[in-house]
User: Which sequence fits this backbone?
């Protein structure tokens, strides 16, 4: 489990671990000395400079310290900050929380002619799961499901607009401390009270018939009002090297690189405006269901737009599933949306500031408030975040003792050799299923982190 770190990098490790072997109580545990000695040798050999490493290993049964190395040193947690977001939403929303996204009619419905004389209103609830992730054959899922439900009511024409109600979320889509270079990658996608497809569009590049021929770049028509500038060449390269950046103050998408003849490559790139992506995709989904919307889409501007009408369609997704995607895959969009959802639940408004306050409040109630720590975003992408190995380990210990929320947190974490961020670690190693952990990496900043649990009971007879 020990990440390979280069000299000068920051490493944050927190393991609330080593549940006793089956039949061995806390007082009978084998001495921790040998393990502590091995950990001491490993950390010493790693050659970290002072102030670059924080490590705490606790025993789950009684909370005793097995090994520590500057456990109270605030460090950049990278994606282990998602554990703080997980704790906040489990405590504030509850493990059984369900997100509902509804499509309402506001106006008079003429069933005979199939006309809604008014608007359709898409009410969001901070659900990060509205994507085609599990329905690859339907690029508009689940918006296509909502549209089909509206069509089932006999509506074929809407005289008004599709209104997007993003609820109590603010419209500061990206955190001001995120590096600009991260905003062109999927992990820097913007968040809102309504999102679709992880706020990303899939770009498809096809090589021409031979080197020197033009390559084609295809972007879905639902991707929004942003023109694409193609600068991809067909070349005798072995592998495609294509990507995209936003140019002209993020008004145009420039796709560049090289691709071998007759090959295809695809990648996801985030859009500048997540609500524009939702609006364009939803109008397209309605059109494909045979429903025309005369005035296109627009954003809700006040209480009247956000008022409930006659519900015509509904999509529900549960928090438990969202946490599994967020933590196993380290999906940042999910984390940021849930971070702001915690702010909505705690303070009635979803913003970076209320999300930070919501996390701090949960930490305080669980006895985890310490000086120097700060969680400013939900994913850990910000370099302004600070957590200690001690807080992360004790957070895991706190949830291990929580019979309602603890199992939900644990099952959301990755297992080595399986799907997620630990898929390539400990493959073929006996007992790997005992490990549940969250990774964290900010490669350009030299930050590596790991926090999780190891169940010592699984191999007691080995």
Assistant:
């Amino acid at each position: 489990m020990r990440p390979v770190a280069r000299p000068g990098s920051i490493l944050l490790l927190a393991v609330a671990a080593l549940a006793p072997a089956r039949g061995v109580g806390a007082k009978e545990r084998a001495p921790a000395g040998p393990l502590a000695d091995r950990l001491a040798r490993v950390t010493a050999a790693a050659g970290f400079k002072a102030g670059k490493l924080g490590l705490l290993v606790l025993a789950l049964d009684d909370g005793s310290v097995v090994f520590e190395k500057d456990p109270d040193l605030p460090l950049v947690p990278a994606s282990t900050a998602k554990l703080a977001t997980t704790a906040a939403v489990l405590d504030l929303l509850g493990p059984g929380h369900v997100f509902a996204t509804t499509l309402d009619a506001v106006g008079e419905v003429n069933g005979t002619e199939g006309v809604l004389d008014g608007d359709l209103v898409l009410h969001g609830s901070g659900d990060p799961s509205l994507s085609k992730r599990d329905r690859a054959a339907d690029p508009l899922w689940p918006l296509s499901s909502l549209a089909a439900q509206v069509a089932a009511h006999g509506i074929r024409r809407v005289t008004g607009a599709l209104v997007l109600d993003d609820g109590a979320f603010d419209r500061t889509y990206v955190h001001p401390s995120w590096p600009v270079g991260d905003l062109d990658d999927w992990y820097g996608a913007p968040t809102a009270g309504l999102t679709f497809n992880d706020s990303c569009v899939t770009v498809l590049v096809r090589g021409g018939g031979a080197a020197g021929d033009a390559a084609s770049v295809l972007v879905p028509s639902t991707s929004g009002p942003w023109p694409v500038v193609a600068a991809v060449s067909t070349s005798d390269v072995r592998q495609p090297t294509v990507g995209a950046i936003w140019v002209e103050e993020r008004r145009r998408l420039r796709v560049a690189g090289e691709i071998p003849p007759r090959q295809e490559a695809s990648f996801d790139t985030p859009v500048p405006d997540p609500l524009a992506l939702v609006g364009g995709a939803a109008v397209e989904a309605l059109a494909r269901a045979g429903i025309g919307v005369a005035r296109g889409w627009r954003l809700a501007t006040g209480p009247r737009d956000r008022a409930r009408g006659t519900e015509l369609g509904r999509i529900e997704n549960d928090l438990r599933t969202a946490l599994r995607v967020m933590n196993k895959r380290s999906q940042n969009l999910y984390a940021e949306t849930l971070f702001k959802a915690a702010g909505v639940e705690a303070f009635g408004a979803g913003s970076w500031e209320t999300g930070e306050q919501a996390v701090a409040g949960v930490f305080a109630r669980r006895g985890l408030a310490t000086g120097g720590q700060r969680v400013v975003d939900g994913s850990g992408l910000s370099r302004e975040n600070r957590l200690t190995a001690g807080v992360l380990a004790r957070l895991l210990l706190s949830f291990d003792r929580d019979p309602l929320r603890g199992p939900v947190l644990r099952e959301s974490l990755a297992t080595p050799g399986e799907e997620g961020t630990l898929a390539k670690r400990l493959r073929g190693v006996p007992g790997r299923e005992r490990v549940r952990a969250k990774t964290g990496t900010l490669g350009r900043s030299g930050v590596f982190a790991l926090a999780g649990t190891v169940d010592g009971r699984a191999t007691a007879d080995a």
About this structure: The mean pLDDT is 90. The first helix runs from residue 33 to 46. The two ends are 20 Å apart (CA to CA). Residues 188 and 363 are 26 Å apart (CA to CA).
